[in-house]
Structure formats: structure tokens, C-alpha cells
Amino acid sequence: MARLLIYDEYSNRIYTYPKINENDPMPYSTESTLKVREFRGESGSPTLWTTTAAMEAWNLTRRRYGKGIYVGYAFRRIWEGGHGTRSQHYAGVAFDVGQNTTSANRAEIHNAALRTGAWGYVEPLSQTPTWVHFARRYGLPACTSSGTGYPTLRRGSRGCYVMILQDALSTLGYSTGAQIDGIFGTMTENALRGYQRRNWLTVDGVCGCSTWTKITTAVLGVGRTASTID
Fold it and tell me: Residue 24 burial (CB < 10 Å; 0-12/13-18/19+)?
């Protein structure tokens, strides 16, 4: 059983599914081609999140490929680690797939993902010899020189990147509220200002490149703490 949050960037709304079974299909995935447990992967989190755009990109890829696609890795929370500090897996919009099949089939999946034009990034096969990686990230990265990462966030921002921020801040001991909700409101801003103040950052309540770099480095892979919220 999981609590699932899905951000729709088109309407800037967050849809909450408070109790969804592990064998249920992911909302917005068609024909049960992606189940909650497949999206969860190895994560032990009671709360999961993604976007409608990522589900649409999945549907298009699955339709073009025409067969089932094994998902080895999708969602992960940043304190669980397993990826770098800028990973889109923590936003719930990245997939590592095809680990149980042949290189020829992985090439087909890779080409199907590319042909959809729906993914923001499909990693070259030369960099993923035993899997296929694609991600439906959104927003311009705050660290512009990297070309990847998370966008600048401030009061009024919504979405999965706010969920990462709330997850990280609460895990580091800065309360953003009772639950992760993906809405950058007063409590999230106050928590962020508190973190900035204690870490020699500009105290402006804006999560830009320097703040993202500091927070993600501090929280990556530390494990659940007493202050982590779901």
C-alpha cells in the first residue's frame, strides 16, 4: 500500500492517491503496463511521486515498442541514495529498464523511447550497457553549467522538485509540515531559510544552484531520520 502524489505540470495541480495497492496500475499508465510495485522498485518509501507527463511518455514508449518492458529501477528518495545528487529518479520521472533482456531488445526499447519525442532525455546506449535510461524532467536546471539537475524553486512553486526539497529538508531536521505535499508554502520557505542561515548560504528562501548543491550533498544516502516526513 502506498500514498501516491502525481503532479500535472499542464494544470500545475497535484493529485493525491492516499491508498493505492502495490499491484494496481500506476494512474495515467494505460492497460496496466506499469504497476505501482514496478515503479517503486527497491524503494521502501510509503509515499511515491511522479508526473502525468512521465506517465504519458511511458505510455507512448510502451505503445511503440509493442511488448512488455521490464522496469529495474524507477522511483527513489534522495536519502535512500543509489544515484547522484542531481538524479531525476528522486523526482520520480526517470526509468532504468530492460535489464533482463538482450542488447538487441534494449536497442529496440531505446529507439522506441527516442521516436516518441516525449522524453526530455534518453541516455546513449554506450553509457548504459545493460539497461536503458530515460527521463521526463521539466524546468530549467538551477545549475545552468551542468545541463541537468533541479530547477530554481521559491514560494509558490509546485511539483516533484518541491517534494524532493521537502523530503531533504525534513530529513535534515528542518520541518516543512506534517506531510510532503509538493507545495512551496510558508513552512517550506521558513525551513529553507533556516537551512540557509545555518549553512552560510544567502538567506533568501530561494532554492537555487548553491542551495541545491549544499542540500543534496548533505542528504544523499543518509537514510531515514527521526524527522523525515512522508
Answer: middle
